[in-house]
Amino acid sequence: MAGFVSHFTNRLDAKGRVSIPAPFRAVLARDGFEGLYCIKSSHCSAVDAGGNELLAEIEKRSENFIKLSPDHDALAIALFGESENPKIDGDGRMTISEMIRDHTGITDQVTFVGLKYKFQIWEPEKFREYSAEAQKRALAMLSGQAPAPSQGEPV
Amino acid sequence: MAGFVSHFTNRLDAKGRVSIPAPFRAVLARDGFEGLYCIKSSHCSAVDAGGNELLAEIEKRSENFIKLSPDHDALAIALFGESENPKIDGDGRMTISEMIRDHTGITDQVTFVGLKYKFQIWEPEKFREYSAEAQKRALAMLSGQAPAPSQGEPV
DNA sequence: TGGGTACATATGGGATACCATGGGAAATCA
DNA sequence: TGATTTCCCATGGTATCCCATATGTACCCA
To answer: Which stretches make up the SpoVT-AbrB domain (chains A, B) (predicted)?
Structure first.
C-alpha cells in the first residue's frame, strides 16, 4: 500500500554487499517478485530498482511494438538486455554489480531513495547534489514560474 | 517467470564450446524445450535463440501466410531451413556452429543478451556498438518522437 | 518512571555451493 | 581409422548461505 518512501544510506562491505533498507524489503516482499529488478536510469546517474510493479511499467513500454521487428529488438535490448536481476540474500542484502558501480559511481556507500512504485540506487554525494537541484526545480514549478530545465528529463 | 534478462560474456574454449549463462539455462529448463532453437536475426549480426516461447512467436508470424503458397514456402525455408537446434551438454554448454560464427563474427568470446522471450548471441564488440545505438533509439521511441529506423525493414 | 529485556536491523566473516572453464576418454561418424 | 563430437571429471574463482555481533528501539514490569 505505502510503496517505497523516504531514503536511507548504508555501507558497502568488503564483499560488495549492502543491506536493502528494511522498509523497502517489506514492500518487495508484498510485491512478491523474486529478487530485485534493476535498470539504469536513462537521465541520471542512478539505477532504478523494484519488483513486479516496476517490471510491469517497463513491459508496458514494449507492448506497442511487434516482436521480432527491429524496433522491438532494439527496445528489448535497451530495456531487458541492459538490466539485471540481483538476488536478495537471507539477511536482506544485495550485491552491487559492476554495471551499477559504473553507472552510479558508488564506492563504499549506497543511498536508497524511495519513489513510490520503485526506488533508486545512488552514490550518496551525487544524490545530495541531485536532490538539491530537484528542490529548486520543484519550488520553481510550484511557484508557477517557468521550469529550469538545466539537465535532462523529469523524474 | 522472469524470462531472459541481462547480458553475459563467456569465453569460447578450444573445442568451440561456450557456457550458456546459468540464469538463461534456468529459463530454458522452465520452458521445457529440448536443446536450443537458433535462427539468424534478419536485421542485425546476431543470432536469436530460445525455446518454445520463441518458436511460438515465429510460428505466429508465418500464420499470416497461406500454407502451400509460394510466400509461405519461402518464409518456411527462411525461418526453419536456416535455423539450427544445438544441443546443450551436461555442463550447460553449447557449441558455436559455422553458421553462427559466420553471421556474428564470433571468434573467442560470446555475449548472450536477454530480450525477455528470447536471447541473442553476439560478438562482444559488435554488441557494444549495437547496444549504444539501441539505447538512443529506445529513448527516441519512448519519448514519442519519430523513431530512427537507421537500418532495415521489419521481418 | 526507570530499568531492563526482547526484538529488529545493519554489518562482519567463515564455510559451502555454484558456475565457468579446461582437458581426458569414450563414442560416433564418414 | 582419423577426425569430430559427446560424456565425464577436475579446478579455481566467485557468490551464496549461515552464524555471530553491535547498535538501537520498542516493550514490559515493578
So the answer is: 7-52, 83-126
